[in-house]
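Reopening this ticket.

The earlier resolution said the output was attached, but the attachment link was broken on my side. Pasting everything inline this time so it's all in one place.
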Amino acid sequence: MSATGWTPGGTPGEIYEAHMVPAIFARWAPHLLEQAGVRTGDRVLDVACGTGALTRLLPDRVGPRGRVVGLDLNAGMLAAARTVIARPNLEWLEGSAQAMPLPDAAFDVLVCQQGFQFFPDKAKALAEMHRVLAPAGRLALAVWRSIEHHPGYLALRDALARRIGAEKAALPPFSFGDRETIRGLVTQAGFRQVRIHAEIRSVRFHSAEHMVRAVVGGAPSMMGMLSDQGADVLDAIVAEMVEATRALVDDDGWATPAASHIVTALA
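Inline output:
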């Protein structure tokens, strides 16, 4: 796709599922589950589950004796999730990570893929995570590293910054990339054996335009002021991105390295 003015159709949840999940989140989900050590019979909570890129892998892994709950604040994301998978041991639940409508010690494993950086009160969210985990329950979080580790998104931020200034152009997904700050919060919430390591994988879209249009259409509440730009500005940003990221194009489309912190701990 070149800078054509193409836009994806559907609700944000549908666009997120159709375009962002295969390009980004499905590529990371199996690794996060391995880090969490999910086993047969486990009770697993996926916090900020979105349309269930990770959640959908869990029912088969935990088996009929296990339980899976996908929790998200966004009803539109959950609506899209319900169209993808339904299983007897899978429940979709609307609610906040900072006040989970769940009992104490109800889960053996809690996973959260790229949602933690969006929580307004991260300490409160971690306290809730600790509360709903059983003693010695396992926590696994994936949190993007800072935008300097994501060259494709860095080019997008710079294109936006040229129009509205660097401070306003910050992209929220990459806003919480400091390892020791994360470690401090997780430890203060009462978790033990906190371990953080960095992983790099490819984010892959059909083109630079596909990336820009998909993130604006599928995650408007997550992309800061990028989503507030009018059609003409977005067209100009797409054109700049096509030119600035030519080195990221290969025979299969457009790919950028993406780096995430993987955080594991015990309750």
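Reporter confirms the inline version is readable. The chain has a mean pLDDT of 95. Residues 12-36 form the longest helix (25 residues).
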